[in-house]
Design brief:
There is one protein chain. The protein is α/β, with parallel strands linked by helices. The chain has one domain (about 1-265): Alpha-Beta Barrel (TIM Barrel), CATH 3.20.20. About 45% of the residues lie in helices and about 10% in strands. The protein has helices at about 20-30, 55-70, 85-90, 110-115, 140-160, 180-185, 190-195, 205-210, 225-235, 245-265, and strands spanning about 1-5, 35-40, 75-80, 95-100, 120-125, 165-170, 200, 240. The strands form two sheets. It has a six-stranded parallel beta sheet with strand order 1-2-3-4-5-6, covered by helices on one side. It has a two-stranded parallel ribbon with strand order 7-8. The radius of gyration is 17 Å and the shape is globular. The protein binds 6-hydroxymethylpterin-diphosphate (HH2). 6-hydroxymethylpterin-diphosphate binds near residues 10 and 79.
């Protein structure tokens, strides 16, 4: 899954693709580089980001999704917490609703996901985007994230979302201490995969990579760590990784998969 942010302020590529022409050109590059899915976002979730109104968010993403759906072969995902944005995006051609609030943001989130009939990504987040990194706390991060995701999958199914439409995501960096929570969660991904749904993992360029590399690494200096974490996810059986650097990650994954296959005898 390649990240395509139509935002002025996302943490790693904010501002670069706010212009639709630049966004479309970048989308074509992500696909040529090996992306099967494009995750289009119109509102950054990083702490301190400006909230965006629904109409403004739709104006950012809808024309772009329409263009992408008409002119590319990738599956399009909409990264939003707002049901109204998801509705507009699906009408424009998106087939996946990626919701970092796991359908908890609005009273009609669950019903909207059921009626749209698209795939939904249910992501774990402790707290709210603005304040989530202030003081995250867990007694047992892997068990608590797994229990949350199982509960949200049940809630989605009870609301009418089909089981085969549901993906889970542990939400690396969302209300998690950089080291104390993200690392055990990455080491325990097998427990999340074991819940029986496809798992999406977003580790690309995240802050814990800089923290593990002495600190102070800018977002464009985190590729090695991003790939290492993506491979850890692949080894645990995740179905997809959400990344900015598609070509390098795709190469790493195909080499890793070829070695794993040779190890199984061919
Ligand atoms: N991470 C970000 C955004 N959306 N969605 C899922 N399912 N999983 C993630 O880990 C995830 C996500 C990161 O935040 P953002 O501010 O949008 O920055 P960018 O899109 O540049 O990664």
């Amino acid at each position: 899954m390649g990240v395509l942010n139509a935002t002025p302020d996302s943490f790693s590529d904010g501002g670069r693709f706010a212009d639709p022409e630049a966004a479309l050109a970048h989308a074509r590059r992500l696909i040529a580089d090996g992306a099967d899915i494009l995750d289009v976002g119109g509102e950054s979730t990083r702490p301190g980001a400006e909230p965006v109104g629904e109409a403004a968010e739709i104006a950012r993403v809808e024309p772009l999704i329409r263009e992408l759906a008409a002119h590319t072969r990738a599956r399009i995902s909409i990264d939003t917490m707002k049901p109204g944005v998801a509705r507009a995006a699906v009408a424009a051609g998106a087939v996946i609703w990626n919701d970092v609030t796991a359908l908890r943001h609005a009273p009609d989130s669950l019903a909207t996901a059921a009626s749209l009939g698209c795939d939904v990504v249910l992501m774990h987040m402790q707290g709210e985007p603005g304040t989530m990194q202030a003081e995250p706390h867990y007694d047992d991060v892997v068990s608590e994230v797994a229990a949350f995701l199982a509960e949200r999958a049940e809630a989605a199914m009870a609301a009418g979302v089909l089981r085969e439409r549901i993906w889970l995501d542990p939400g690396i960096g969302f209300g998690k201490h950089m080291i104390r929570h993200n690392l055990p969660l990455l080491a325990g991904l097998g427990r999340i995969v074991g819940l029986g749904f496809p798992v999406l993992l977003g580790v690309s360029r995240k802050s814990f990579i800089s923290a593990l590399d002495g600190g102070g690494r800018d977002v464009d200096q985190r590729l090695g760590g991003s790939i290492a974490a993506a491979l850890a996810g692949a080894a645990a059986g995740v179905a997809a990784v959400r990344v900015h650097d598609v070509r390098e990650t795709a190469q790493a994954l195909s080499v890793w998969a070829a070695i794993a296959q040779a190890g199984r005898g061919g």
